[in-house]
Amino acid sequence: MNIAILGFGTIGSGVYEIIEHATTPETKALHVTHILIRKGKPKTLPYMCDDIETILNDPALDVVVETMGGLEPAHTYILQALQAGKHVVTANKVVVAAYVKEFHECASENDVNFYYEASTGGGIPWIQGLEKALRIDQVNRIHGIFNGTSNFILDHMQRYQATFDEVLKEAQHLGYAEADPSADIDGFDICNKLRISASIAYDYHVPDNFPVFGIRTITKEDVQYFKSLGMAVRLIAKTKRQGNTYSCVVEPILFKENQLEANTMDNYNLITLHGDTIGDLKFFGQGAGKLATANAVVQDILDILEGKAHRVLHFQKEMQYDTTLCNRDYIVRCDKSLRPMLHHLSYDSSTFDKYLHVKNVEVAHMHELMKEILKHDATAFMASIHDHREEL
Ligand SMILES: NC(=O)C1=CN([C@@H]2O[C@H](COP(=O)(O)OP(=O)(O)OC[C@H]3O[C@@H](n4cnc5c(N)ncnc54)[C@H](OP(=O)(O)O)[C@@H]3O)[C@@H](O)[C@H]2O)C=CC1
Ligand SMILES: N[C@@H](CC=O)C(=O)O
């Protein structure tokens, strides 16, 4: 099977390494025949080219692997490859979250496969697991740690008392962070992964119009305060469906220190789905990193080689977004002069004076308040408190 890799960075070079150092009969059947690099960059390997047409017009090419990242030209190249009768595998959640419906339609029209396991959960076979669960159950709830960089940062701030900037630099050095790490720390990477997961679960192309709050403003002191309360913070994405309404949210959540999420370390992800008959099912593994993610890409290529079909999705359902599906307790840190903005909420006045514990607030309302607070205090932070009784 002949493969072209578009983009030779962390993941593209990982795919190349796995195929070049093949040790199993399956991977020995794969051959990289083209690598697309930017114009003007030195061609350090014989298969390198800087022209997409050469790749699209090669009749011997079977699979295009897209690991460039971003919306364009990834969107155009993926469509062109599918239209040219090539199967496509991508790790790019930005382009999948935005165009999943269009890509599925185009693949089906051209009788080829479009697979994107590595886009969500890195090396974890999460999409495959979700699709398998959907063969028997409705999946009405998904939640979890979907971002390796933010987990690495929060875990290392807690375990090693490191500062945010120190750990972010390390995550970048290890190849976990996006080219622009604001996507990791502001929650937009995890937002894309939640959209992809919920779109598959609900067979509805979920838009990006839900509340997202990241970890940009968290401090070492916040993490130590949460620790003194016996809790650890993790950046979590959640979705829930009731009938034809659904909710999605991304925010930092505090877990008791004996909970699995609180013990998910380094670049690991922990994703949970709830199915009617299977109950809670958890997926755990490296959510970011060169070889773990490249492994998921190669698994998709092998599925194509072995003719293993993935779930057929149409994204034709009609659904409504419902902001009122959940209320939560929050801990908020902001300048004391801004506290009156929170006084209409019920709160615990006995709590440590730097932090306000507010109770039973509707999630979308809390996110709106926090947006206002951040306009006046750009360092403010909030985290919700996980309630094990809560139906997500
Ligand atoms: N790193 C990780 O752990 C994971 C990454 N992903 C996803 O995989 C994709 C790749 O990520 P990653 O490898 O980390 O990113 P990198 O930035 O390391 O690699 C991207 C590569 O693509 C090249 N590139 C970008 N645009 C073009 C273009 N128009 N033509 C040719 N080459 C191009 C870049 O070149 P240049 O350097 O010159 O810009 C770079 O070499 C992203 O979508 C990312 O979100 C998914 C899961 C995990
Ligand atoms: N930057 C992402 C890479 C994988 O998707 C992350 O840290 O999870």
UniProtKB/TrEMBL annotation:
Occurrences of domain Aspartate/homoserine dehydrogenase NAD-binding (ranges): 7-117
Keywords: Amino-acid biosynthesis, Methionine biosynthesis, NADP, Oxidoreductase, Sodium, Threonine biosynthesis
Record has Signal as a keyword: no
Record EC number: 1.1.1.3
Any single GO BP term: methionine biosynthetic process
Reaction catalysis annotation: L-homoserine + NADP(+) = L-aspartate 4-semialdehyde + NADPH + H(+)
Residues of the Homoserine dehydrogenase catalytic domain: 125-302
GO molecular function, one term: NADP binding
Keyword NADP: yes
Pfam families: Homoserine_dh, NAD_binding_3
Signal peptide: none
Entry-linked InterPro entries: Asp/hSer_DH_NAD-bd, HDH_cat, HDH_CS, NAD(P)-bd_dom_sf
Pathway as given in its UniProt record: Amino-acid biosynthesis; L-threonine biosynthesis; L-threonine from L-aspartate: step 3/5; Amino-acid biosynthesis; L-methionine biosynthesis via de novo pathway; L-homoserine from L-aspartate: step 3/3
The family this protein is said to belong to: Belongs to the homoserine dehydrogenase family.
This protein's name: Homoserine dehydrogenase
Organism: Longicatena caecimuris
